[in-house]
Design a protein that fits this description.
With 485 residues, this protein is α/β, with parallel strands linked by helices. It is 36% helix and 11% strand. It has helices spanning 10-14, 49-60, 96-107, 154-160, 168-188, 202-207, 222-225, 227-239, 264-276, 324-331, 348-357, 368-371, 375-380, 400-404, 409-428, 439-465, and strands at 18-19, 25-26, 30-32, 66-73, 85-86, 114-119, 139-140, 164-165, 192-197, 245-251, 282-286, 339-342, 362-365. Helix 9 (264-276) links the parallel strand 10 and strand 11. It is globular.
């Protein structure tokens, strides 16, 4: 069902406020999607305030309707990539909690609400990622390793290994960690949280028959595969009642060979439960995982982004987003719970068309707002820019030939996303994004930075070991870095 008159302009459509079931009113329909910022530092991965001041201030002032933070990992033992913020057992204590409160203030300083995405990678936590013993395997609903279309290599086994099946005690601990994360978000001053149930992470693994082969209360049928999600929603709502905003990000499907992963039919039933349970304020739809072959989102790095904005028409839908077909099926549920569609949106008219058609109520913006943090204010909601010129920066990730040279497919394929990690690190360091950076350049920059960091640490250790180094030396023995300013 259309939400507005077809006579509304494109800007009017995306600029409409939206009140969620929890009572939170979003000033417009544009949502900054959750992404991995890779800016937090070991050993505890607290919010890096100086870098977040640079990064989140730009998003906070850019006139989004809602900001969803980058992934926050709920268990410090299992990380998908080093640099994600972690909600650990001491987060509510000082000096940690004040950093969370400051982060909430920074991200909402201009009045745009912000919610925290809470995640657990499950089997996607490689060896060495997280504070756990080297021989401690990642967890998964069932002991199902990541497999690719080509022959699995020994290198891949070393990167991800074979996960162990989660015990009931593991599941209880995971639930407690997610609930703790929701509580931290609430007490820090964020507007709510989102549970990451997509892209092959742990919650997604429980929802997919590919990785959930259990025959207990947590698996064995589509209904039982929902058990963990239902438990999370119930227990989080017990301590975070409305007006706290609770969202879930789900896969529309795994986009694997037929019969080997989550199908769109089962994905639709999972969305049905969420919109009918009476506890969820909006659902974000995405799709795919590390093993998928057909997800448009995961296969979009090699294509140049939009160069010309399409025109709106009453007779022809634009269908710019990657998961539009699934979202159209969700329309048939006739739910009042808003749907956020993420992936593929580039133009004002494409976004407005999706809202006008009723395909979704919220527009998720990810990669485009890494390159243009102020995209809503500067372009999409700017009336001085005509519709045919109102679209995200046209670009293509350069140097993808380098990724194809990597023998391990899951690693090589992941190099394209490094382009966006690299640019978020630039933003966090107070620099502008570099849309022209190539994959080889980014890889070698990383190697150089690692070498420099290791070299300085080696020099510090050598200096501190010299016998003439006194207690009163200007070199602080408790310092973790050499002051070379």
């Amino acid at each position: 069902m259309k939400e507005t008159s077809p006579k509304s302009t494109a800007i009017e459509l995306i600029a409409q406020p939206l009140t969620l079931p929890c009572g939170l009113t979003l000033p417009n329909r544009l949502v900054k999607c959750p992404m991995q910022e890779t800016l937090a530092a070991a050993p505890v991965f607290d919010p890096p305030l100086e870098k977040f001041e640079n990064l989140y201030t730009q998003w906070a002032r850019a006139n989004y309707g809602l900001i969803i933070t980058g992934q926050v990992q709920i268990d410090i033992r299992y990380l998908s990539i080093e640099g994600d913020v972690v909600c650990h057992q001491d987060t509510l204590k000082e000096p940690h909690f004040s950093k969370w409160k400051k982060w909430a203030t920074i991200s909402q300083e201009a009045g745009t609400p912000c919610i925290v995405q809470l995640a657990h990678p499950g089997r996607m936590s490689p060896a060495g990622a997280g504070n756990r013993p080297a021989d401690m395997a990642a967890i998964c609903p069932s002991s199902v390793p990541v497999e690719l279309a080509d022959r699995r290599s020994k290198a891949l086994e070393k990167v991800l290994g074979t996960p162990r099946e989660a015990t009931l005690e593991d599941i209880d601990a995971v639930v407690a960690a997610w609930v703790h994360g929701a509580r931290v978000a609430k007490e820090a001053g964020f507007a709510g949280c989102q549970l990451h149930g997509a892209h092959g992470f742990l919650l997604s693994q429980f929802l997919s028959p590919r990785t959930n082969r259990r025959i207990d209360d947590y698996g064995g049928s589509p209904e039982k595969r929902l058990t963990l999600l239902k438990r999370l929603v119930r227990e989080i709502r017990e301590i975070c009642p409305r007006p706290y905003c609770l969202s879930v990000k789900l896969n529309s499907a795994d986009y694997m060979a037929e019969g080997s992963g989550l199908s769109t039919d089962e994905g639709l039933e999972q969305v049905r439960w969420l919109v009918e349970c009476g506890e969820i304020d909006f659902v974000e739809i995405s799709g795919g995982n590390a093993e998928n072959k057909t997800s448009k989102l995961h296969n979009s790095f090699g294509a140049k982004s939009l160069e010309k904005a399409p025109k709106m028409s009453e007779s022809t839908r634009i269908r710019e987003a990657y998961f539009t077909e699934f979202a159209e099926r969700v329309q048939g549920l006739n739910s009042k719970v808003p749907i956020q569609l993420s992936g593929g949106f580039r133009s004002r008219t494409g976004m407005a068309d999706a809202i006008d058609s009723g395909v979704c109520s919220l527009i998720g913006l990810g990669r485009s707002v890494v390159l243009q943090p102020d995209l809503p204010a500067a372009v999409l909601l700017n009336p001085s820019i005509p519709d045919d010129e109102a679209f995200a920066l046209c670009h293509i990730v350069r140097g993808q030939w380098f990724a194809r040279m990597i023998p391990v497919k899951v690693v090589g394929a992941g190099l394209a996303i490094q382009f966006f990690y690299y640019n978020m690190r630039r933003l966090g360091n107070g620099l502008k994004s570099d849309p022209h950076a190539s994959i080889p350049y980014i890889v070698f920059q990383g190697i150089l930075e690692t070498f420099r960091g290791g070299f300085l640490q080696t020099v510090e250790r050598m200096l501190l070991s010299f016998p003439w180094q006194s207690k009163n030396s200007s070199l602080d023995r408790n310092s973790h870095h050499l002051d070379v300013s």
